[in-house]
Amino acid sequence: MDGLDVTTQIKAIELLKCELLSGLAELYEVLRKPARGEERAALASLLINLYLLSRRLGVDFEKLTEEAVLKLRREILNGRAAADVELLIKYLGGA
Q1: pTM to 2 decimals?
Q2: If we measure between CA atoms, which residue out of 14, 88, 90, 20 comes closest to residue 49?
Q3: Which whole number is the average pLDDT over 62-73?
Q4: Mean model confidence pLDDT for the chain
Q5: How many C-beta neighbours within 10 Å does residue 89 have?
Q6: Distance, CA of 80 to CA of 74 (rounded, Å)
Q7: Coil/strand/helix, residue 72
Q8: Is residue 34 packed enough to be buried (19+ CB in 10 Å), middle (13-18) or exposed (0-12)?
Q9: What angle do CA 79, 54, 86 make, to 5 degrees?
Q10: Residue 85 in contact with residue 95, Cβ under 8 Å?
């Protein structure tokens, strides 16, 4: 990888980090207002940016999902709301 590739990669990561923070701010703004049905779009933007950032950081989508399932299983062991967590594990394909 030459210097230009490294610079391009760093810029892409920084942009995704900014988009992630912007998306979080958007979600807070949406949640502050009376329900308008915008929550789903704001949450989807966060999810998309998390997956894209993970790829740029060298974690492929499948590995990120596997790590999420492992973390969710640990949450169940620690007494977190098992019904929601188990539903998410099943959705992510870790059942």
Answers
A1: 0.81
A2: 20
A3: 94
A4: 90
A5: 20
A6: 9
A7: helix
A8: exposed
A9: 25
A10: no
Per-residue model confidence (pLDDT) at position 19? 97
Report the alpha-carbon distance of residue 50 to residue 57 in Å, rounded.
10
Hunting for tokens 């950081």 — which residue is that?
Answer: 57
DSSP 95: -
Here the tokens at position 74 are: 């640990």
Instruction: Give the residue from 70, 67, 72, 74 showing the smallest Cα distance to 87.
Output: 72
Give the model confidence (pLDDT) of 13-29 as tens digits. 999 999 999 999 999 99
For every residue of 24-66, DSSP letters joined together read HHHHHHHHHSSP-S-HHHHHHHHHHHHHHHHHHTT--HHHHHH
Task: Single out the residue of 91, 94, 16, 22 nearest to residue 55, CA to CA.
Answer: 16
Token output for 30: 């949406």
User: Distance (Å, rounded) from C-alpha 25 to C-alpha 28?
Assistant: 5
Every domain of the chain and the residues it spans:
1-59, 60-95
